[in-house]
Here is the input.
Amino acid sequence: MHSSASPAAVLPRTALLTGVGRRRGIAAAIARGLAADGVDLALSYHAPYDRRVLGEDADVELLAEELRALGRRVELLPGDLEDPAVPPALVTAAREALGPLGALVTCHCESVDSSILDTTVESFDRHYAVNVRATWLLMKAFAEQVEPGTDTPGGAVISLTSDHTVHNLPYGSTKGALDRLVLAGTHELADRGIRTNVINPGPIDTGWMDDEIRASGAAATPAGHLGGTDTVADLVRFLVSERGAWIRGQLLYSNGGFATPAL
Here is the structure.
């Protein structure tokens, strides 16, 4: 089977993941999947967000122990991505701990429900700082690892997005901006060997759903059930691998056909 990557373009087996606060979250599932594939990991998290928005404590230390038991190197990197100094510092710290990074997977977000009439300026600005500006700064620092035109591969960037907007205005609008930002990277950063993709996983229950939401989501999915965190992780694992290297600049719907009308 031929690969789209030459031997000189094999990526470092290292990755920086953001938004890895809770072991039942999507980012934690991605971390487990990449660790199983032999990838060493830097895990970025912000415990105050998990407590403030999700009402849970971050348990990323237990996840790190789990991954280290698989023989992986794991670096924990706390930080509030609203601060513009934090994203480049995370990339620097990850590189110092693990060496050159082969992948950047952004799963972080600010997500506080509000609508057109009741969103505050403070909340609106925080959503854009965390969801858009921080993603840009992470991509920038990740790309700056590699000089243009060199034989060293730049790696893969993957971000998670969402269609949700109604009564979740600042979150939804920032996801639209994130899509455009990340997808532009495939073209703007091509001379650094960087490929970028965005994944829309549809509704995934990581503890935020009640019975009514789960039932409604399952009814809107042709298979009759929702996807899980592993369905997201499986696609990420493929996209960062050599086998997925030809998929570039795409917004991929990996949602089981959620809300797709029958034809």
Observations:
- Residues 182 and 220 are 28 Å apart (CA to CA).
- The longest helix spans residues 121-143.
